[in-house]
Each structure stands twice: as C-alpha cells, then as structure tokens.
Amino acid sequence: MASIARWVIGLACLGMAACSQQAMLDKLTPHQESEYAQQVLGDLRAHHLDQVKANLDGSLQQLPDIDAKLEQTASYFPSGEPESVKIVGSLVQVRAGSDNPDGRRTFDLTYEYEFADGWALANVHMYKIGDALHIDGIHVQRMSQSLEQQNTFTLAGKDAAHWIMVLLAGAMALFCLYAFVRCLCTPIARRKWLWAIFTLFGIGTLRFNWNTGAFDVQLLSVQLFSASASSQNYAPWIVGVSFPLGAIWFLWRRKSLIAASPLPDTADPKPLGQMEH
C-alpha cells in the first residue's frame, strides 16, 4: 500500500519544474542584501555584538535590553565554524504609489547553517531606503535536523489521518480522470469539450500539513483533478483535496445530455426492388 501511495503523490508532482528549488532560490535572492545579511550573522556567531548592534534599526538600538537579547540570540548557534550555509527563504517586497513615499524595500532572508553537532536556522529582516540598509529583526533557532530532512515526504510512522488524506487525494484524481474519459466517450452534440474540461476540476480545498497534521479549509479554491501535493522552499508538504463538482455534475447529467442530443440519421434504405436504376 505504501508503494501505491508514493506512486499517487509522484503523479501529483510531475508538473514541478525540472530545475532544483535551491538553484531557483539562489537565482532570485538579491546578492548585495544577502551578503550584507550573512556578514551580520557572521558577526553574531562570533559574538561581535557591537558590530551587529551598529547595523540595527535605531528603534532596536534604543531598547534597554538589546545587548542581552543579542547575546541570547547568538547562543542559539552551535559552536564551531559552519560546514555549509545555504539560503532557504527569500522574500522581497516593494510597495507602490503613495503608500511608499520613501521607496522603501523590505527583505526577508532565511539561511540554514550546518554544524558538526547540529543545525541552525537564521532569519534576517531588513529594509532599504536609497542605498542604506537597516536591520529590524534577527531570529535564530537551533535544529536537530536540516529542513529537507524535517520536511521530507514519508509514510513511515504516520497515523490514520495521513493515510486517509493521501488515499483520498488519489481517489479524487482517479475519479476526475474516470469522468473525463467517460465524457469523451459519451455522444453529446453540444459543448462536449467544455463538459470534459469541467470534469477535471474541483472546488474548495481541504489542506493537510504533512508535518504537523494540521487541517485548514480554502473555500475559494479550484484544483485540477481535485487533488494536489506540493512543497515550496523547503516548507512542509501540503496535501489538498477538493470537492469534484465537475465530475459529479457531469455523471449526474449524463443521461439527460444524451437524451437531448439529436439521434444520427438511421433511416432504412429502400428495398432492393424499389431502387432506381
């Protein structure tokens, strides 16, 4: 059964881009801001707190306990030099128009550090006005595994909710495919291709976080094959199922659609003796 479930999820992921998400992240990350963020994090790891403090936004520098908070944040890094550092999250935002008179741009960059005795996830939030960068947030957390290991898709040790969701996603996809093929084989005179396309879509989405087991509902949602499984930027896998409205509606209307279609010309040929010569 486990192999069937993996096959179903594999089919749902065939549409993913061929290039790796790491290469895409590296390409989309602003290099100047990323180098600046890594430099500040390097100073934080080395406990050069005065240098880190000098790069903070003025409101943070004025906090009475800023030194203690920086010291505590630095302690979350494992000891020693990192064996590897990679970007695992990059978000750039620019507001347009009168809402942003000073042309402020914000950057939210997250890095994963691998050490000999553990991992750390470090986030730097900063804004840029003109050419000046200001950091208004630094967060570090220690981890026992990499994000890729934490968020890998596996059925090992999963409970009934995980099995139900993955099998339900597979069943919805197969049901939509069945209705689509049935529609193509049904003699419908008008709008046949519209009906066929309609059978492939479901509405509303019940989403399931594969890591945490949490559910949430998106009412305004449309899904192809009424099922999905996706993971972006090292985030947990999200399995989604939708109500297969198109497939159910077509199968319910199928007989009436056939009855409303004109019959082909089946007039009997004239008897042989009445054929004109």
Quick recap:
The chain has 277 residues and is an alpha+beta fold. It is built from ten helices and eight strands.
Notable characteristics:
277 residues, alpha+beta, 4-stranded antiparallel β-sheet, 10 helices, 8 strands, 38% helix, disordered N terminus
Gyration radius over CA: 29 Å
Quickly count the helices: 10
> Can you summarize the main beta sheet?
4 strands, antiparallel
End-to-end distance: 70 Å
| Number of strand elements | 8
Mean pLDDT: 86
The residue ranges in which pLDDT falls below 50 over 5 or more consecutive positions are: 1-19
Summarize the helix and strand pattern as letters. Answer: HHHHHHEEEEHHHEEEEH
Strand order of the largest sheet: 1-2-3-4
Note down, in words, how this protein is organized.
- The chain has 277 residues and is an alpha+beta fold.
- Helices cover 38% and strands 27% of the residues.
- It has a four-stranded antiparallel β-sheet with strand order 1-2-3-4. Strands 6-5-8-7 form a four-stranded antiparallel β-sheet.
- Strand 7 and strand 8 (238-243) form a beta hairpin.
- The protein is elongated and about 85 Å long.
- Residues 1-19 have low confidence and may be disordered.
SSE topology sketch:
Blueprint: H1 2-12, H2 21-28, H3 31-45, H4 49-54, H5 58-61, H6 66-74, E1 84-94, E2 105-115, E3 118-129, E4 132-143, H7 147-150, H8 160-184, H9 192-198, E5 201-209, E6 215-224, E7 227-230, E8 238-243, H10 245-260
Antiparallel strand pairs: 1-2, 2-3, 3-4, 5-6, 5-8, 7-8
